[in-house]
């Protein structure tokens, strides 16, 4: 079964004979000549344009599928005659890329990644078939109960780190618990078990814990039976080291006196210790094997009868003991656990979720800052935005992948910028209530920082990291050209009121000093700005404000036209065909991580938590603005602008590593376009119903930085290919602009 997608259309085909994959942009189609001139013209044009377009790479790295690029025999290759028709345009030569997906839902997600205005999401929204995963990923999700033939040396840096962090004190704790069990006499069997486990947890690598079944001939009647017996050679062999009551292997195990003593004295202390190890190792991510080791010990090993637990060292020439393998670990650290996911959620997002709860509790319970200070609460609130942005992004991707085009477009337009808008609106409300203009300037700095960062830093960083693995990367210059044109239009529209005020406003300075002691000499002035409120604000209310409203209406209209252009009339720019990568008849049904209703609930809850965290961030940012020696411009363009975009940056890096730079560039461009065409008009609309200090007049520094960034970005992306050097240029320019903001004085009035 195959699924072929073009933007806005899904056509499943379930034939036994699948048609061949569409031709790749790397190989021109063989054309049947309708005449000498027509055939040579079409061949030359397709040869020229297809060689230049060679762009979009498949999003296939995590799926184990391959881009279908059929080879065309030399005899079928059309002749090249570009020299004869160098000025013509080949309209039939379009970008066609065939990607592979496991099911229709995943195919929808991949198709949405190439649609303008849709959130680009790298992670899977459905559960991947186990057989399609690589051996590295399979090892991440496997239980620690597999015995290998030869795992190499167990003396590694990671294992030594385990010994220093956990091994020595866990072993000592087991020795103390063993001594306590021996003192109770009745708990002596558990004392022997703890003694064996003390040696195991000191260095568990290359050792195995197994559950064995004890033959009835080796069992003795214990305290749970009426009489007491013993095992001898006549009854089945030598007496084992541990005293084994018979009730340990039947339903009366939990009624034994030794079990009660163990559960009351020894087991709770070990549960607390292993719980501490489990939480610490899980938070460190790379030590998740140690967390699994501790969790499985508490859940299985410590609740088994001691006679059924065998701890032994593996030898390469030794046949494993018969019985169930409970634990077998070779390495404490696995660096690939950054890929680990719980129900489709990345492990880092899972680990940061408790931070959101801590932030909300501290922020609203400790309102008088008795437990923590305002800078600490501001930092926690800002860090909490990162996992919430991840959950919002995954919820949007899940809903869009399981819905039709209209629902996906509405969800992306409604919640795509909810993270940034929540913070901006809460900051403007607080500034309006306090009568403080600094909050409006911080919002403008954050808007500019998001624009500059997404135009320079995001694509530049993706180019650098992707260029380390791939010498040269190509991308779809036509689709990037659409985003670039919209970006030029949006930047021009956003800064039009600013340029208008510079031309017609009156320059007013607060302090001026004559440096030459001559009335006609030079004056040194401070706190100069263009006054728009002269003559009772005639210039602003009669000219600037109507211009702001006009621009705020035109920019969303231009955004809708861009959507209609790229998704309807000229959808061939993003002509992506997605089909099943499995053999015919081998179909996998979609098992989604989040259903539509679950994704919707998570989306709404994340949005509410985001609003609360944004409120706490704006509530506790005042001491930082007043007491910090760093410019408010710098705080806005760095921390407040880029922290909410970290999940998008990670997505862009993952796409670049898969040689899919087109999506990495589109991530930055789409965010920048949404800032200018959606977020700013929404803020202007908000100020109509709730008056604030926000006006669409930016400082000169914001105007110059934004325009220079857009021009440089378009120059770099002109030829449709790039390498790590060009990415380094973009990143260096971004850091130069940050240095300018760092040394710039704070806005007037702050």
UniProtKB/TrEMBL annotation:
One of its GO terms (biological process) is intracellular calcium ion homeostasis. It is a multi-pass membrane protein. Residues 157-207 form the Inner membrane component domain. The chain crosses the membrane at residues 160-183, 260-288, 345-366, 378-399, 405-425, 446-468, 480-500, 547-567, 597-617, 663-689, 701-718, 724-744. GO terms for cellular component: endomembrane system; vacuolar membrane. Residues 376-495, 599-741 form the Sodium/calcium exchanger membrane region domain. Residues 12-43 are annotated as: Disordered. Its main location: membrane. Residues 29-43 have a biased composition (Basic and acidic residues). It is found in: Endomembrane system. InterPro entries: CaH_exchang, NaCa_Exmemb, NCX_ion-bd_dom_sf, YccF. GO terms for molecular function: calcium:proton antiporter activity. Pfam families: Na_Ca_ex, YccF. Keywords: Antiport, Calcium, Calcium transport, Ion transport, Membrane, Phosphoprotein, Transmembrane, Transmembrane helix, Transport. PANTHER family: VACUOLAR CALCIUM ION TRANSPORTER (PTHR31503), VNX1 PROTEIN (PTHR31503:SF10). This is Low affinity vacuolar monovalent cation/H(+) antiporter. It comes from Eudyptes chrysocome. The gene is VNX1.
């Amino acid at each position: 079964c195959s699924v072929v997608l073009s933007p806005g259309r899904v056509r499943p085909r379930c034939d036994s004979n699948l048609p061949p994959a569409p031709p790749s942009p790397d190989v021109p189609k063989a054309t049947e000549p309708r005449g000498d001139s027509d055939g040579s013209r079409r061949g030359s044009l397709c040869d020229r344009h297809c060689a230049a377009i060679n762009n979009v790479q498949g999003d296939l790295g995590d799926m184990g599928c391959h881009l279908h690029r059929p080879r065309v025999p030399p005899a079928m290759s059309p002749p090249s005659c570009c020299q004869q028709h160098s000025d013509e345009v080949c309209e039939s030569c379009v970008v066609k890329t065939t990607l592979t997906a496991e099911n229709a839902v995943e195919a929808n997600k991949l198709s949405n990644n190439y649609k303008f205005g849709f959130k680009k999401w790298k992670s899977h929204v459905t559960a991947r078939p186990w057989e399609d995963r690589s051996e590295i990923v399979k090892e991440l999700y496997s239980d620690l109960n597999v015995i290998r033939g030869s795992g190499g040396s167990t003396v590694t840096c990671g294992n030594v780190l385990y010994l220093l962090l956990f091994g020595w004190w866990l072993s000592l704790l087991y020795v103390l618990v063993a001594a306590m069990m021996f003192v109770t006499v009745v708990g002596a069997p558990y004392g022997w078990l703890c003694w064996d486990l003390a040696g195991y947890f000191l260095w568990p690598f290359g050792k195995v814990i197994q559950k064995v079944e004890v033959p009835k001939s080796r069992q003795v009647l214990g305290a749970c039976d009426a009489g007491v017996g013993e095992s001898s050679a006549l009854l089945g062999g030598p007496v084992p080291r541990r005293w084994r009551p018979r009730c340990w292997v039947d339903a009366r195990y939990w009624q034994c006196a030794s079990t009660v003593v163990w559960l009351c004295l020894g087991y709770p202390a070990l549960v607390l210790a292993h719980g501490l190890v489990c939480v610490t190792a899980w938070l460190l991510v790379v030590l998740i094997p140690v967390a699994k080791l501790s969790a499985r010990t508490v859940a299985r090993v410590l609740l088994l009868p001691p006679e059924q637990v065998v701890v032994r060292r593996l030898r390469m020439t030794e046949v494993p003991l018969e019985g169930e393998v409970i634990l077998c670990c070779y390495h404490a650290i696995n660096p690939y656990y950054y890929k680990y996911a719980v129900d489709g959620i990345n492990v880092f997002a899972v680990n940061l979720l408790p931070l959101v709860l801590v932030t909300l509790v501290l922020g609203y319970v400790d309102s008088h800052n008795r437990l923590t200070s305002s800078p600490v609460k501001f930092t926690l609130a800002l860090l909490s935005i990162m996992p919430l942005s991840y959950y919002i992004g995954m919820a949007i991707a899940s809903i869009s992948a399981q819905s039709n085009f209209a629902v996906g477009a509405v969800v992306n337009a409604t919640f795509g910028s909810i993270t940034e808008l929540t913070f901006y609106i809460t900051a403007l409300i607080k500034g309006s209530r306090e009568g403080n203009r600094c909050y409006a300037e911080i919002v403008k700095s954050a808007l500019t920082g998001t624009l500059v960062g997404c135009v320079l830093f995001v694509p530049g960083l993706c180019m650098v990291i992707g260029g380390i693995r791939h010498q040269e990367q190509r991308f779809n210059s036509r689709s990037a050209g659409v985003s670039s044109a919209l970006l030029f239009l949006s930047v021009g529209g956003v800064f039009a009121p600013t340029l208008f005020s510079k031309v017609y406003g009156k320059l007013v300075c607060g302090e001026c000093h004559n440096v030459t002691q001559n009335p006609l000499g030079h004056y040194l002035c401070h706190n100069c700005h263009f006054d728009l409120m002269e003559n009772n604000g005639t210039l602003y209310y009669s000219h600037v404000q109507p211009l702001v409203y006009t621009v705020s209406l035109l920019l969303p209209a231009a955004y809708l036209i861009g959507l209609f252009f790229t998704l309807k009339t000229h959808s061939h720019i993003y002509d992506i065909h997605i089909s099943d990568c499995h053999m015919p008849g081998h179909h996998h049904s979609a098992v989604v991580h989040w259903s539509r209703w679950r994704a919707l609930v998570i989306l709404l809850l994340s949005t509410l938590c985001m609003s609360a965290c944004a409120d706490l961030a704006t509530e506790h940012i005042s001491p930082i603005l007043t007491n910090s020696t760093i410019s408010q411009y710098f705080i806005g363009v760095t921390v407040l602008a880029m922290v909410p975009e970290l999940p998008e940056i990670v997505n862009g890096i993952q796409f670049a590593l898969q040689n899919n730079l087109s999506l990495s560039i589109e991530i930055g461009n789409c965010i920048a376009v949404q800032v200018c065409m959606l977020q700013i008009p929404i803020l202007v609309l908000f100020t109509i119903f709730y008056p604030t200090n926000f006006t669409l007049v930016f400082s000169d520094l914001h105007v110059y930085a934004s325009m220079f960034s857009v021009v440089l970005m378009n120059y770099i992306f002109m030829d449709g290919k790039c390498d790590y050097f060009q990415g380094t240029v973009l990143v260096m320019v971004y850091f130069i602009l940050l240095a300018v903001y760092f040394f710039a004085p704070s806005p007037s009035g702050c």
